[in-house]
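pinned: reference chain
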Amino acid sequence: MARSHGHAGYQEVTPGCQMGSLDTLVVDMPPGTGDTQLSITEEIPITGAVLVTTPQRVAVADCVKGAEMFTKVAVPILGIVENMSYYKCPGCNVEHEIFWIRST
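pinned: its structure tokens
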């Protein structure tokens, strides 16, 4: 199946899906305006959202926009995951910061 993006992609893929009752549905969405997220909240009852970001400022800003959009439509934010914050070398077992040094 070709990878689809945005609201049109969501509408293109979901009509043929018969998912039945789900405990969890994971949807990987690109950052952006929130149109796709809004479309999904209009069509699927959502009990919560987990947002994933990387440490770069622009990625965090997109994550904040997504959180604000979900808050506006009363979808609780269950958590935020920071992905790729460091790389742990299997040879020396040292954590190497990829994007920036975390302040403690």
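why pinned: The longest strand covers residues 77-82. Helices lie at 6-13, 35-43, 57-72.
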